[in-house]
Amino acid sequence: MWAFIHKLGSPKWFYAISARLQPWFWAAAALLLLVGSVWGLAFAPADYQQGNSFRIIYVHVPAAFLAQSIFVSMALAGLVFMVWKIKVADMAAAMMAPLGAAMTFIALFSGAVWGVPTWGTWWMWDARLTSMLILLFLYFGVIALRGAFASRDSASRAASVLAMVGVINIPIIKYSVDWWYTLHQPATFTVTSRPTMPVEMWLPLLIMVLGFYSFFIALTLMRTRSEILRRESTKRWVRDLAAEER
Amino acid sequence: MAGTETPMTDTEAAMALHREPHGGLVVALRATLKRDLLLLLRRRSEVLNPLVFFALVITLFPIGISPDPELLATIAPGLLWVAALLAALLSLDTLFRGDYDDGSLEQLLLTPQPLAALGLAKVAVHWLLTGLPLALMAPVLGIMLSLPAGSYGVLALSLALGTASLSLIGAIGAALTVGLARGGVLLSLLVLPLYIPVLIFGAGAVQAAILGDGVAAHLAILGALLAVTLMFAPWAIAASLRISING
């Protein structure tokens, strides 16, 4: 077990191991997303209250899940990088950040689109939307900080520290925004207590969530592999690999 | 003469070497506090500028929105808090900048005393000369915004408590960006999202005081936020300073 983890920490071995794992995650993502979206968008019953507009949750909820999980995994990768100096962890963290920001944006955008038929407006200072917006700013901060340094090593360590500070703050921000919202509750129609979902509705949702996670893992593996090649391009094994390709 | 003294000085030097790291922390903390206070008090404009900025921003709002006292009174708690928060943010860039430019930050890193403690001393001085004056000045600006009576004390107290957390959180961002030539906008991008909980409970305390609710809960949460940041921020500041110096 430990030997495997140590191997995973070396860019060369990670490159080899991920080559075997990657196709499985891509296949799982394609299958789950296909089944989930067809089932969710075409066959799941319409909501008795919101009609067909509720179907946006099949994109909104998985994106929102992923937006939060990616920040946590970015901070974990940062911790691994800071403590054990494992470079692959930092490469993965660097590759996760834009995807996390994109997922946060998708969650916000789909929430806004859902808001039009439900609230009659594109934007409400709803507790969940507001904390998502703050999460988006946190992602922008991490990405901008990494881009601001000239030396790659300082950039990696600075981004790791900021991601860890951010992850401690996310629950604090979330609870304080919830608390703020309950105080300033606007007198408009909000869907706070949804009726419990029947199986035909939440099963496709579960499949979509799993599909989004597989997609995230597959894409991160792929992007980390190309980042390894870019950063290690002067190493012997990468040159050998390039020579083989040619 | 010199021959007889040599063993004496050797043992003395050895003892001094042995002694220095032990009794040194209090001495080093006191020296850092004294030096930073002295430096800031000699550059008075750096202390005064955030206060002038605070007053200016507050002046802009009645001009931009409406001089109507009733309208101003309803938005005054949030306005005062946001303006004070921005003033505190603007002063952050100077927190480590001078020491970085003249190299004394490197000396601070080389001292045997823990960097987290020394960083905390620097932040304490920063709060004493920006956060506290802002808190004391806020009630005066509150009068200009016709803030309802009975909330002035809470305004000052919540700002005094809140700006301490703001200085600590902001110091992490300042330490991360001190090595960058143009870190100003980036600093606010990093720090502002982390300021939101403090803003919520700070402005909430003033609002509660106006509505006549108990303010103890808000102030207690502000205190709890300060306790949490006091626990984590010094380590993050120390790690960030090391990154900025060694990078």
Shape annotation of chain A? globular
Structural class of chain A, please? Answer: mainly alpha
Overall 3D form of chain B: elongated
| Helix proportion range of chain A | over 70%
What is the count of β-strands of chain A?
A: 0
Please give the count of helices of chain B.
9
Helix and strand succession of chain A? HHHHHHHH
Distance between the termini of chain B: 50 Å
Helix content of chain B: over 70%
β-strand amount of chain B: under 5%
Query: From the helix content, strand content and strand pairing of chain B, which structural class follows?
Result: mainly alpha
How far from one another are the termini of chain A? 36 Å
The gyration radius over C-alpha positions of chain A equals: 21 Å
The secondary-structure element order of chain B is HHHHHHHHH
Structure commentary:
In chain A, 81% of the residues lie in helices and 0% in strands. By secondary structure, chain A is mainly α. Chain B is an all-alpha fold and 247 residues long. Chain B has one domain (24-246). Chain B contains 9 helices and no strands. The longest helix of chain B is centred in the first third of the chain and has 41 residues, at 2-42. The radius of gyration of chain B is 22 Å and the shape is elongated. Chain A binds chain B through residues 82, 134, 137-138, 140-141, 144-145, 148-149, 151, 153-154, 157-158, 161-162, 164-166, 168-169, 172-173, 176-177, 179-180, 183, and chain B through 172, 176-177, 179-180, 183, 186, 189-190, 192-194, 196-197, 200-201, 204, 207, 225, 228, 232, 236, 239-240, 243-244, 246-247. Chain A: The chain crosses the membrane at residues 56-84, 96-117, 129-149, 161-181, 201-221. Chain A: Keywords: Cell inner membrane, Cell membrane, Cytochrome c-type biogenesis, Membrane, Transmembrane, Transmembrane helix, Transport. Chain A: Residues 13-184 form the Cytochrome c assembly protein domain. Chain A: Belongs to the CcmC/CycZ/HelC family.
